[in-house]
Amino acid sequence: MSGSAPRPVRRRTFVLGTAAAAGSAALAGPLATTASAASFGYTDDGSNYVIDTGANLVFKVSKTNGDLTSLVYKGTEYQGYGGKNSHVESGLGTSTVTIAQSGSTILVSVAYGTLKHYYAARSGENNVYLWTNKADTSVSATRYIVRVKAGLFLNDEPDSYTYAPTTIEASDVFQKSDGQTRSKHYSKRRVIDYDYVGWTTGSVGLWVVRSNHEKASGGPFYRSLLRHQSADGGGLYEILYYGENQTEAQRFGLQGPYVIALTDGGAPSSSLYPGTLSTSWADSLGISGYVAASGRGRVAGVGISGRDTAYAYTVGLANSGAQYWGSARASDGYYSIAGVLPGTYTLTVFKGELAVYTTSVTVTAGATTTLNTIAIPSSNDPSNASAIWRIGNWDGTPSGFKNADLMTYAHPSDVRASAWTGNVVIGSGSETSAFPAYIWKDVNSGLLVYFKLTAAQAAAAHTLRIGVTTAYANGRPQVTVNSWVSSIPSPPTQPSTRSLTVGSYRGNNNTFTYSVPASAWLTDTSQYNVLKIDVVSGSGTTAFLSAGTSIDALDLLA
Length: 558
Known about the structure:
Elements: H1 19-28, E1 41-44, E2 48-52, E3 57-62, E4 68-73, E5 76-77, E6 87-88, E7 96-102, E8 105-112, E9 115-122, E10 127-134, E11 143-149, E12 166-169, E13 173-175, E14 181-183, E15 196-200, E16 205-209, E17 227-230, E18 233-239, E19 253-263, E20 297-301, E21 304-305, E22 313-318, E23 323-327, E24 335-340, E25 343-351, E26 354-363, E27 368-371, E28 374-375, E29 387-392, E30 424-425, H2 431-434, E31 438-440, E32 447-451, H3 455-458, E33 462-472, E34 476-481, E35 484-485, E36 510-516, E37 529-536, E38 548-557
Parallel strand pairs: 20-27, 21-28, 30-32
Antiparallel strand pairs: 1-2, 2-3, 3-4, 4-5, 6-11, 7-8, 8-9, 9-10, 10-19, 11-18, 12-13, 13-14, 15-16, 16-19, 17-18, 20-24, 22-23, 22-25, 25-26, 29-38, 31-38, 32-37, 33-36, 33-38, 34-35, 34-37
EC number: 4.2.2.23
Keywords: Cell wall biogenesis/degradation, Disulfide bond, Lyase, Secreted, Signal
Subcellular location: Secreted
C-alpha cells in the first residue's frame, strides 16, 4: 500500500519464570504486591487494577469506568489509539469496578446500571477473557473494541483499511486515490467462517477470539465489522449486536467469553475457539447470567436426506433468547450442536444460506435431544423445480453473479467492479456471470434477459421466479415480458438500514413469483422473448443508495 512504512514492533527481552511455576506460586502464596513479570497477581496503582498473568502479559483496568487502559505484552504497550481506551461500546462512563482472586483466576467486575462486564485472567496465560451481560436497552452496548496503537502491525488487510482520502458514503466508506474502496464494515466473512480475527507481525500476534454468539443476532451467515485500521491505529471487535442490515431483534443476556489473546506470532490456541473452549474454571466466579456446561444440553441428528451434495448444509437453532448452529456432515448430514441453553427452538436446515426445512426441538439441561433423519421434501428446494431456463443457483446467496464476491469487501463504485449494466442471452453460457448480483432503481434497473421458446412452450402459461437475499429501501422487482407488464409486488420484510453498500447481502431470503400468461410470449420461435427487470420503490435516494436488491436466482418454470 502507498504511504509511509509502518513502524516495526519494538521488542524487549525479559527473563521469565515458567507458566507452571508462576501458577504454583500464585496458588501457594499471598496476593502479589507488585505487577512483576514472573508473579501472577494484581495490584492497585490508584487509578487502575494492574493484573499480571505471570507469563508475558500485564494489563490494566480503570477503577473508574472499567476501560482496558493498558495491554503490555513482553514489554510493549499495545493498547490505545487516538487517546482512547479499549472498552464496551465507546466507553461506559462512571461504573462500579471490583476485583477478586480465586486461586489461579483473577476476575474484574464492572457494573454500569443494568449492564455487567467482566475481565478474567488465568495464571500463566497470555489471554484476557471477557464477558458482557446486557440486560435491556438502557445501555447502548453493541460491541467491545480493542484499540491498538498505530504502527505496531502492517496495514495490509484490504477489509481492515478504513482511512482514505475521499469519503464517498456517510462517514464510514472511503475511496483511495487508485479507485479502490475501504470501510470497516467490509468484513469479508460470515460469523460461521471465523473463530478469531487479528494481526501478526510474524513474531507477535494480537487476536480477538469470538464468543459462541449465542446472544447475538443474525444467525450463522451474518456479516458485521470485525476490525479496522486507520491513520492513528487499529481496532479489533467482538460484536454483541450490530445494527447494519440486522435480520433479528436484539437478544439480551450474557455474551462470552470472548478472548483477547497474545501470541508469539501464530494463531491463538484452538482451545480458545467457540465450541472448544472450556470454562469450568469460571463456574464459581459469580458472573451474572453465567450458565455452566451442566446447565446446558445438546441436539444431535443422525442425518439429513434429500440434500444436494454440491452444497454445504448448516443446521441452526434459534428462539428469542439464543441462537446456535452446526455444520451437517457431508457424507450423511449428521450434525451435533452442544452447549445449548434449555428451551424450545426453531431448528432450520440451510442449503448454503437458503432455509429448506424447519421444525421445533426442545433442549433439556444435561441431556441430548436426538433427532431421527430429517427428510427434506423435494418441493422445499426451488432447484428441484423443472425450468426452461435458470440463472444462478438457489442457495440463498448471489454467488456466481457478476461482482458478487467483490461486494463483501468493497463498495459497488469500486474500480474493480465490472459494469453493473449489461443484458443476458439465455444459451450464451455466461448467463450467471454476466448478470449483476445487485440491481438498483437508479443504477441498472431495466436489465434485459433474451430467450427463445419452442412452440409448445409458447403455447402455455409459465411461472417466473426471482429470488432475492435482501433489499434496500423496499426495492423489489417488477417484470415486463415483451408487452405484458406484471403488477408491482408487495415489499417483503427486510432490514431498514444500509446493506448492499456495506458489504452485506444477508437479509431475509424471499421469492417473487409472476404468473405469465401464454398471450405474453412471441409466437415466432425464431425470435427472442425479452424479459425486463425493473426495481420499483417509493423510497431510497440516488445512485447506490437508491432502492435496490440482491439476487439469489431467477428462472422460468417449465
